[in-house]
From TrEMBL:
It comes from Candidatus Cetobacterium colombiensis. Keywords: CBS domain, Cell membrane, Coiled coil, Magnesium, Membrane, Metal-binding, Transmembrane, Transmembrane helix, Transport. Residues 134-195, 198-254 form the CBS domain. The chain crosses the membrane at residues 356-372, 384-406, 418-445. This is Magnesium transporter MgtE.
């Protein structure tokens, strides 16, 4: 409804009506409309210029980097400065991190002089660190203040702060002493001293802490905000839940890409060039292709066996597929468990014991069903039915153990467990399954195979 209305008003060139519609809409919906219709740069600029400055800043923060660049390039310095003044500091940093150097230079030239050094400091933090995620627009109180004084301070500064749900109590040197929620302030007497009612048992991270560790704290303790301190316990900034949601999405996307044997990329699919997509996939595919030559060499080694019993070849695809699928199931569960903090490196024996029991049940079930299929439906002899079914059961057991242990091994070696997912597990299990299959074949058919 909103998008249709905007299109109609643009066609009629009814800018007054368009401005009224836009300024009643949510920033997310406006940003979504701009992105969907980003090919029409003229209309995109018109829409953005019609927004009042507070709404324009919120819409800008919700846009992708490509659209942000177009908008910055289409507005004059006065409009740019006005936009920058309305942006929250962390949104400003996120924006600058995605921009080319010429855009960053222009933005810094139009930003308040006293904050330029602070921006440069934030831009110097490691990309995946807590420091790169935080904002300096937090609510701080002094332990000597009363509740009444604190509430008056909040009312005075609320518009400039990203969140007022939690206030952080600092001393004269800005060292973090405690925290207090707005709910606690509102339910306390006006003459209460903050020091007496604040919570001194607070969670925090350092500026150098990896963002994954911050994500774990948010998940474990259901946080909406997390303070960031330096080595001397001085409060530097805070990380809010909206930034954490973005990080969680990025981390999950990165894990999915690694599990699919692709190099991670933060760019959107439709906005990524064909060459870039090909490059991200080609490297891992080459590695897997080369590693798969081991499977081919195993088959070549037992070529004479296959020639004497062609029927052996018919079961190879089924054994390899089932082994790969079984291993992928285990690796996916273990990787997910490690990401959520449910499984630690020291739990490898528990993982082995659990996957062993699971694989015995699954392997026995699949082996039995396959035996009946080959004997009753395919009319194979007893030996062949036993050979394939026993190999299938053993393959499933090995696949689940390999799939369960490889991610833990990767973590131990300080590698990303996600790389030990489907494709790599499948390659390893395929080779093991073939060796077991041909060895059992040579044992059971020793009188035939010479």
């Amino acid at each position: 409804m909103f998008q249709t209305k905007v299109k109609e008003l643009l066609l009629k060139k009814d800018l007054k009506g368009l401005k009224e519609v836009l300024n009643l809409e949510t920033p997310v919906n406006i940003a979504e409309y701009i992105e969907v219709n980003s090919d029409n740069e003229k209309d995109m600029v018109i829409l953005f210029r019609l927004l009042h400055k507070e709404l324009a800043a919120e819409v800008f923060a919700n846009l992708d980097a490509d659209e942000q660049i177009k908008i910055v390039g289409s507005i004059n310095d006065d409009k740019l400065q006005s936009l920058l003044e309305e942006l929250y500091f962390d949104d400003m940093i996120d924006f600058l991190e995605e921009m080319p150097s010429n855009v960053v230079k222009r933005v810094l030239e139009n930003y308040k002089h006293e904050n330029r050094s602070l921006i440069n400091q934030f831009l110097s933090y490691e990309e995946d660190s807590a420091g790169s995620l935080m904002t300096i627009e937090y609510l701080s109180l002094k332990s000597s203040q009363t509740v009444k004084e604190s509430l008056e301070q909040i009312r005075k500064n609320a518009e400039e702060l990203e969140t007022i749900d939690v206030a952080y109590v600092i001393d004269k040197n800005k060292k973090l002493e405690g925290e207090i929620t707005l709910k606690k302030l509102l339910s306390s007497n006006d003459d209460e001293i903050i020091e007496n009612i604040m919570d001194k048992n607070i969670l925090s991270v350092k500026t150098s802490t990896n963002q994954e560790e911050a994500v774990k704290l948010f998940k474990k303790y259901d946080l909406t905000v997390l303070p960031v301190i330096d080595k001397e316990n001085i409060l530097i900034g805070i990380i809010t839940i909206d930034d954490m949601v973005d990080v969680i999405e990025e981390e999950n996307t990165e894990d999915f890409q690694k599990m699919a044997a692709m190099a991670p990329s933060k760019e959107e699919y439709l906005g990524t060039s064909v060459l870039h997509l090909a490059k991200n996939r080609l490297t891992w595919l080459l590695v897997l292709m080369v590693s798969a030559t081991f499977t081919g060499s195993i088959i070549s080694k037992y070529e004479e066996v296959i020639e004497q019993m062609v029927v052996l070849a018919a079961a190879i695809p089924m054994l390899m597929d089932t082994g790969g699928n079984a291993g992928s199931q285990s690796s996916t569960l273990i990787i997910r468990g490690m990401a959520l903090g449910e499984i630690k490196i020291g739990d490898y024996l528990k993982v082995v014991w659990k996957e062993l029991r699971v694989s015995l049940i699954v392997g026995l079930g699949l082996g039995l069903v396959n035996f009946l299929r080959m004997k009753l439906i395919l009319k194979q002899d007893l030996k062949m039915s036993m050979l394939v079914s026993i190999t299938l059961g053993i393959t499933v057991i090995i696949a689940k153990l390999v799939g369960g242990l490889l991610p833990i091994g990767a973590k131990k070696l300080k590698l990303d467990p996600a790389i030990m997912a489907g494709p790599l597990v499948t390659t390893i299990v395929d080779a093991l399954a073939l060796v077991i299959y041909f060895y059992l074949a040579m044992f059971l058919y020793s009188d035939v195979l010479r």
